[in-house]
């Protein structure tokens, strides 16, 4: 994959990215090698639609299968990838990987989108939108199968460029959600201006429901805000039946969390999809 990217850099007129993004000090050599050796792997955490009681997509979450240290969680390497800029080529690998796996997911009954996290750092690549479009074409990805999860931090950096990137992709049918909603600084005007279809309520608020009066109020307020702006709302980090019941009672659209499933490897996710389809058919 890296060779392919480098090849593009040398011989292609299409705007590509790796060389642009490599900082003076270079990438962290261990992480760069990991990308070349394809040691990264995507796990998938299903999203559940509360009205249909069915899987309505998933979030792709990266893991690093380290040859000696075993499976590494993103918090242990994503910050370093962001600091060095490696997140830019890694981000393209992630989109390509989702593209490769989509046919199997659709075969197993996927009805909905796969959410891919985009870090603020990836927007510093000026070719983000055209490169994503090219990857989607190369892998014949239906744009209705992709959703990008942004954080409020990403939205607030270089507003004009971020806005035009989002518009460009959204015109192609890709959707955008706002991740960890409520923990950053997003202005209501931005929510209105950008084609964001979904708000994801941060786990830190979901942790307190039911019982913590402030968290209950915040969760209700986010659900109402989303619906008043014609957006969908997902609660993240749902671990208990009591949380689920609170969210159903307050008209939340979707949930994601250990109560239904942890993030699982592709094969397990395909099994979940098949089981889900059998249950829906009953
Ligand atoms: P995020 O995008 O907010 O992802 C949700 C995180 O919450 C995931 O952690 C998920 O495993 C975890 N989670 C989901 N449900 C529950 C639950 O019920 N209980 C608990 N305790 N945790 C739950 P994970 O996979 O460790 O990812 C952490 C963060 O790393 C993500 O937060 C995201 O910001 C970043 N990340 C993960 N994959 C990628 C990626 O492919 N690209 C980029 N740029 N960032 C990624
Ligand atoms: Mg984790
Ligand atoms: Mg996310
Ligand atoms: Mg989140």
From TrEMBL:
Domain EAL: residue ranges: 24-277
Domain of life of the native organism: Bacteria
Any one GO molecular-function label of the UniProt entry: cyclic-guanylate-specific phosphodiesterase activity
Protein name: EAL domain-containing protein (Putative c-di-GMP-specific phosphodiesterase class I)
Organism (species): Marinobacterium halophilum
